[in-house]
Each structure stands twice: as structure tokens, then as C-alpha cells.
Amino acid sequence: MEKNNHIIIINGSPRRSKNCSKIIENITKKLDENNIAYEVENIYKMNIDYCTACGYCERTGKCVIKDDMTPLYKDFDNSLGTIVVSPMFFQSISTKVKTVVDRTQAFYSSKYILKKPSIDTKKERRGMFIAVGGQPEYENQFLGGQIVMDLFFKSINTKLIENVYMSNSDEVPYEKNEKFKEDLNKAIDNYIKEIKSIEK
Questions:
Q1: What whole-number distance in Å separates Cα of residue 70 and Cα of residue 72?
Q2: Residue 6 in contact with residue 195, Cβ under 8 Å?
Q3: What stretches of the chain adopt beta strand conformation (E)?
Q4: Rounded to an integer, what distance in angstroms lies between the CA atom of residue 188 and that of residue 200?
Q5: How far apart, in whole angstroms, are the C-alpha atoms of residue 111 and residue 58?
Q6: Phi, psi of 166, deg, nearest 5
Q7: Which residues pair with 129 in a beta bridge?
Q8: Per-residue pLDDT of the chain (200 residues; tens, 9 = 90+)
Q9: CA-to-CA distance for 121 and 73, rounded, in angstroms?
């Protein structure tokens, strides 16, 4: 069933009941408390194939591949926003999140090559990116992932308003990281405020 004016939450982790899942549980609890509709997409359970750079979207504005990404195009278009939660793999987002990002080339091509957007470019949407790194904090730890996500949110016509980073998760998991929990809760509260400001 097609969903409208909801939040898409992308769980970019292949691990069950670990840091990313716990973070999403916190997010959905707050969304429920504020009566904001959402859908959690556990993309590691979905059949989403790699972009093959075939050029079809550059001619049509649509992706030639028909799989579980196909309904996501409509969901991104109809959404009020998207939240991506991803572990860091080699200083970037997880493989499956990158696959989703690459497949939004269809939106990018429709907007910037064909000048005929296949996503509503006038609709306001809000985005949030949450990244979990296993190592202790170091300079530019999340930069690789952030660069990719900046382009992703541009492709899906969503204003990225929050970036939240959690370091050292191998030693201090989400449940024990009080500083991160505090930062996350502030970010979620601000995100909800933004969503309510554009909600119709």
C-alpha cells in the first residue's frame, strides 16, 4: 500500500538487535509519542540490486531494474522525510546503504540531466543521518559517509538538518553511551519539531 506523509527510516545495519537497531527503537518511540507516521526499512532483508550504470535513467528518469527499490521511489516522493542509520564500513556507510544511494541516480538524472524531475521538487522534506563507528573518535572519522549522504539527500530532495555520530561503539555500546544518547535525543527532538513545521 502506498504511504503518504510519513518518515522513512532506513536501517543500514546487517546486525540484529545491535546499536543501529537500538537507536531506531529510540527514534520510533519518540515518533509514536508525537503521532508521526513512519516506516522502518530493514534493507538487508530486501532485494535491492546494484546500479549497473546502464544509462537507462538518463534517457527516461526511471530505473530499469524492478526489485524492492521500485516502491521506495514512490515512498521517497510521498514522504515527509528520511532518517538513515548506518554503521561505518571502511570510513563510509554500509554496503547496502550505498546500494540504495546509487539507485537514486534515477532521481538525480531526472532532475539534473533531463530537467524533468520524477520526484516532487516543491515538496518540503527533512533528513537525518546517524552513523555508528566502532573505533574511538578520530579526525574525519565520519567524513566519507557524510559526503555520500549529502549527495543522497540532495537526490531525494530532502533537506538534511541533523548529523549524529557515535564513536567507539566496540567498547561502549549504545545502551551505555549516555553522552551519545543525550545528543541523539536532542537531534530527534529538533527533527520532530522540523517535521511538525512542514506537516500538513
A1: 5
A2: no
A3: 7-11, 38-42, 81-87, 126-132, 159-166
A4: 20
A5: 10
A6: -120, 115
A7: 84, 163
A8: 456 689 999 999 988 878 999 999 999 999 999 999 999 999 999 999 999 999 999 999 999 999 999 999 999 999 999 999 999 988 889 999 999 999 999 999 999 999 999 999 999 999 999 999 889 888 998 999 999 999 999 999 999 999 999 988 889 888 899 999 999 999 999 999 999 998 76
A9: 13
**Other Cβ atoms within 10 Å of 185 Cβ, number:** 14
Which residues sit opposite 130 in a β-bridge?
85, 164
Angstrom distances, CA of residue 37 to CA of 79, 139, 190: 10, 36, 17
- Packing angle between helix 143-155 and helix 105-112, nearest 10 degrees? 60
The grid cell for 19 is 546499536
Collapsing DSSP to helix, strand or coil, 40 comes out as strand
CA 69 to chain CA centroid, Å, is 14
Residues 74 and 56: their CA atoms lie apart, in Å, by 18
Cβ(12)–Cβ(101) below 8 Å: no
Lookup result for grid cell 559526503: 147
Cβ within 8 Å of residue 157, ≥6 positions away: 107, 111, 117, 119, 120, 121, 123, 125
